[in-house]
């Protein structure tokens, strides 16, 4: 059970001064009102804590996502360094930019190639993260000896 702090007592005094609590009320009525007030404060603290936990989890996911994107970029760069491409085959082919505009390989600028490469790396990183989630789901289902995730987590 939560104890009443001096801050909580100060709040009760403020409530009496503000006319929210009747100072002539019986002790049990005041205890009941104070208990309700404290219960609401506990709920507020729990909600703040849950929001903080969610913010922390979101930040962790974003850091992991950035790390996967950076790794995908390193892999693409390593492949490019070893690749020998016959550019003649690609000059007239087109690709889509993140804006949706299409451009030929021959006409694309450095910035357009960079934008497309970054877009593909982000998609690859997202695919890898989704694949990891599916692998984790398989592990969870097998560990629970069930046939699907709903049964495994219930």
Could you describe the 3D structure shown?
- It is built from four helices and two strands.
- It has helices at 6-17, 27-82, 110-144, 149-153; strands at residues 94-96, 102-104.
- A two-stranded antiparallel sheet has the order 1-2.
- The longest helix is centred in the middle third of the chain and has 56 residues, at 27-82.
- The relative contact order is 0.06.
Largest sheet, if any?
2 strands, antiparallel
Q: Give the CA-based shape.
A: elongated
Give the termini distance in whole angstroms.
Answer: 30 Å
Strand order of the largest sheet: 1-2
List the helices and strands and how they pair.
Elements: H1 6-17, H2 27-82, E1 94-96, E2 102-104, H3 110-144, H4 149-153
Antiparallel strand pairs: 1-2
Quick description:
By secondary structure, this protein is mostly helical.
Which features characterize this protein?
mainly alpha, two-stranded antiparallel sheet, 4 helices
């Amino acid at each position: 059970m939560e104890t009443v702090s001096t801050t909580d007592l100060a709040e009760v005094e403020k409530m009496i001064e503000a006319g929210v609590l009747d100072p002539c009320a019986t002790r049990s009525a005041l205890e009941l009102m104070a208990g309700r007030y404290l219960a609401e404060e506990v709920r507020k603290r729990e909600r703040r804590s849950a929001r903080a936990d969610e913010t922390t989890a979101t930040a962790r996911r974003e850091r992991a996502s950035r790390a996967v994107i950076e790794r995908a970029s390193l892999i693409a760069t390593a492949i490019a360094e070893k690749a020998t491409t016959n550019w003649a085959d690609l000059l007239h082919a087109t690709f889509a930019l993140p804006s949706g505009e299409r451009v030929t390989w021959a006409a694309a600028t450095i910035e357009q190639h960079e934008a497309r490469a970054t877009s593909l790396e982000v998609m690859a990183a997202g695919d890898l993260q989704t694949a990891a989630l599916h692998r984790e789901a398989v592990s969870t289902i097998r560990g629970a000896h069930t046939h699907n995730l709903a049964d495994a987590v219930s």
